[in-house]
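User: Teach me something about this protein's shape.
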Amino acid sequence: MGNVRYGRWVGGASAALLISAALTGCVNNPGDTQGDLRKYSGPVKVKSLDTTRSEEKRAASVVPVVPIHHTGYVALNDIARAIGFRGQWLSGGRYGIGDRDARWTFKPGESSVHSGGRMIRMPAPAVKESNRLYAPVSALQALFGEVASFRSDGREVSFFPRPAARDTGADDLALPFRDARGTEAGEPRAQSRGGNEAVGPLLPGGQAGQGSPIGQGNVVGQGARGHFAGQTAQTGQSAVGSRVVQDAQKYLGVKYDFGTGKYEDTGTFDCSSFTQFIFGKYGVELPRTAEEQSRLGTAVAKDGLQAGDLLFFSVPGRFKNDATVGHVGIYMGDGKMIHSSPEPQDGVQITDINKPYWQMTFLSAKRVLS
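Assistant: First, the predicted structure itself:
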């Protein structure tokens, strides 16, 4: 028994010596990184979220070019994703691209593209293959040149961050959305920062009244000299606007559907079909997309809003112009908006717009009720 215990002790000691020698050899091995670890390590550098996002924006997004009928084509869903838009098949075999509504609509075999109330003709027709729709590379500038920056070398299309729009200094992101009220002399009021021209208030039936460009006396609440000071705004909410808001609330919970058809046929809305439907009940004929609707009406100060005013926002995207109109809602009063959106809920919902996201993406407010 003693010999067995002694043998086990000797074996264990030998194993311990071997392990110790092996470890010593590893440490002394000049070609091994387990030597002086301080030479091979350093402080961990953690990138900030802003730095990461900045690097992402500097990197290009690439879409491959596919030869079809001896012509360079690109898949529209890839183009939409690269810019930061949504792209999907719509009813009637159409394909739509946009933010919260389909600003561009294509159809297989056709060269004409509907875009914001105008028709763009491509040099070659759209082609459908394996449930994907392709458009010719040569049409991209006419289609998306206003909202994105890109270049093609024949093999791929590379998208780059759009240069930021020049700040006119007319807006104040810190100023809350609020109802029209009187202001003391010299108190500044923020103007919309959208670049569209105002067309004047819409008359019943959708006819536009006489107007002038934003910043030239056509902004509600703006002083005669073109700045906000010393003028008493309208104090009460529009009676018609209040009725519009009350009517809009009847549709709370109705589901959102990108590029949907008429509500009577589909039972769904996207952002602009909702505003078009509601205002149509009051004799105001709005066009189909948020971008088109933003061109109409009288510009309204951000702190001079009334119930029934239309609010326009951008939808952020990596390679998209931040001034691109992508969403529309109806101002309710008290800093609230009713709109149709896929988020944060799905469908018609009420949102507090005095939040950082809405403050940062706000473009303009327009009054279309006479």
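Now, about its shape. Residues 2-28 form the longest helix (27 residues). The mean pLDDT is 77. If you'd like, I can walk through any region in more detail.
User: That's plenty for now, thanks!
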